[in-house]
Amino acid sequence: MTDPDNLNDGGLPPTMDISLWRTLDASANRASEGLRVIEDYVRYGQNDVFLTTELKTLRHQLDSTLQKFERAPAIQSRDTFGDVGTSVQGKLEQTRSGWADLLTANFKRLQQALRSLEEHAKLVDGEVAASFERGRYLSYSLEKMVMTTVAASQLFPQVSIYVLIDGGDDGHSFDTFVATLVDAEVDVIQLRDKKLDDRTLLARAQSLRKRTAGTSTKMILNDRADLAKVSGADGVHVGQEELTVSQVRSVLGAGKLVGVSTHSIDQARQAVRDGADYIGIGPTFPSGTKNFEAFPGVELLREVAGEITLPGFAIGGIDPSNIAEVAAVGIRRVAVAGSVTTAVDPGAVVQAMRTCLSTGSENS
Ligand SMILES: Cc1ncc(COP(=O)(O)OP(=O)(O)O)c(N)n1
Ligand SMILES: Cc1nc(C(=O)O)sc1CCOP(=O)(O)O
Ligand SMILES: [Mg+2]
Fold first, then answer.
1. Is the distance from CB of 286 to CB of 317 less than 8 angstroms?
2. Which three-class secondary structure state does DSSP give residue 103?
3. Cβ-Cβ contacts under 8 Å for 187 (sequence gap 6 or more)
4. CB 25 within 8 A of CB 75
5. Which end of the chain is more exposed for a tag (fewer CB within 10 A), N or C?
6. Binding-site residue set for Mg(2+)
7. What spacing in Å lies between the alpha carbon of 282 and ligand 2's midpoint?
8. Which DSSP string corresponds to 297-333?
9. Whole-prediction pTM value?
């Protein structure tokens, strides 16, 4: 494939003429440039080590496929000033309405260029065309990860308090407790009750929906996509053995939140790949709410904080006495149950934890 003249032998490509070289050259440049813009944002704008690494994988894959084409004839065929397309430029190409618009435009540029490379490579070598196709598929997954991370980072405040509650003794006391948490401006309330029958659980979810509607407090249901859908919850939280992110989304529809529990750095990375909106990271400390045999502890929090910018909530035994250890490793979002639900003054505990997270160490 490196000799354009030979390509015309044996009836392989119909033409490896100058127009084909020009197309390959232009599309290769477009793909690399689009990818670089996205990588720069993720690297310098987001400081996201994991996404930067994932994007690098595509860049290397693209580079090694492009190496199958000789560079010299591609560059020789270049005729930037004779390219009719350079003078046909829409006004929209000169402005971007924000980061999301900028990223979307560059993912589109990348994908269109990869498609063009793929189609034109079919005239030359099917295997090379297939390699561009694989790159295009990879770019779709990367777009999902990057766009979800960027949107989710804006959705949850940098300092967030997430409270898990059960259904309580009765509907009235449940509603009163929820009102206390909403007044304390907790950022998320998760209804997690493994004992209630479905109808009672749904009634609690509906009551939670009523109290949180129109407030800054988001409502999440633990495990149950079906009840989340019926009650109009903002989202669902799932564990490693429950429905997958895409399965939950297929039940809830677009625009809802899906959180995933993670207990290792690999699970956290996979949750980003799967397009989760946030992750729970734990267990951090021994918990009175749930029994665990192993504790990844603050070391896992540190690892996640060091490479992932998708919102991550530290969970497991967190209370005002140990929350500084969480903040110290760079996590400023926490999910708590017992320390708030058993407190004499839940609002004061929420406030104490918020203060500690706000004044904690840098880079959450
Ligand atoms: C915010 C948050 N993080 C982790 C969990 C735990 O979910 P899971 O592992 O599915 O365990 P159960 O809660 O279902 O017992 C969570 N609920 N919320
Ligand atoms: C339900 C749950 N999941 C965890 C995990 O690590 O996945 S820790 C946990 C219990 C959270 O309650 P508390 O704040 O009372 O410890
Ligand atoms: Mg679960």
1. yes
2. helix
3. 156, 157, 160, 161, 162, 216, 217, 218
4. yes
5. N
6. 223, 242
7. 7
8. HHHHHHHHHHH--S-EEEESS--TTTHHHHHHTT--E
9. 0.90
- The Å distance, Cα 189 to ligand 2 centre, comes to 14
Residue nearest to atom 6 of ligand 1 (CA): 261
Contacts of 274 (CB under 8 A, 6+ apart): 244, 245, 246, 260
Q: What is the pLDDT of residues 124-144, one digit of tens each?
A: 889 999 999 999 999 999 999
Q: Which atom of ligand 1 is least distant from the CA of 278?
A: 1
21-to-2, 24, 84, 88, 116 alpha-carbon distances in Å: 11, 5, 16, 21, 12
How many angstroms is it from 239 CA to the middle of ligand 3?
Answer: 4
Taking a C-beta distance cutoff of 8 angstroms, is the pair 149, 48 a contact? yes
Kindly indicate whether the ipTM for this predicted assembly is greater than 0.90, answering yes or no. Answer: yes
Cα–Cα distance for residue pair 118/55, rounded to 1 Å? 19
Q: Which of 263, 274, 272, 191 is nearest to 234 (CA)?
A: 191
Ligand nearest to the CA of 223: 3
Ligand closest to 190 (CA) is 1
What's the 271 CA to ligand 1 centre distance in angstroms?
A: 14
Amino acid, single-letter form, for residue 177: F
Q: Provide the total of helices (H) and of strands (E) in the chain, helices listed first.
A: 15, 8
Cα separation, 83 vs 279, in Å, equals 48
Strand ranges inside the chain, DSSP E: 160-165, 188-191, 218-222, 235-238, 257-262, 278-281, 312-315, 333-336
Pocket test for ligand 1, best of 162, 227, 261 (most atoms within 8 A of CB): 261
pLDDT for the residue 19: 77
The binding site comprises: 190-194, 222-223, 242, 261, 287-290, 317
By alpha-carbon position, which residue is closest to atom 9 of ligand 1?
A: 239
How far is it, in rounded angstroms, from Cα 302 to Cα 327?
Answer: 10
Residues with CB under 6 A from ligand 2: 164, 261, 280, 282-283, 287-290, 315-318, 336-339
Write out residues in the chain with pLDDT < 50, as ranges.
Answer: 1-14, 361-364
Cβ of 158: how many Cβ atoms within 10 Å? Answer: 11
Cβ(165)–Cβ(343) below 8 Å: no
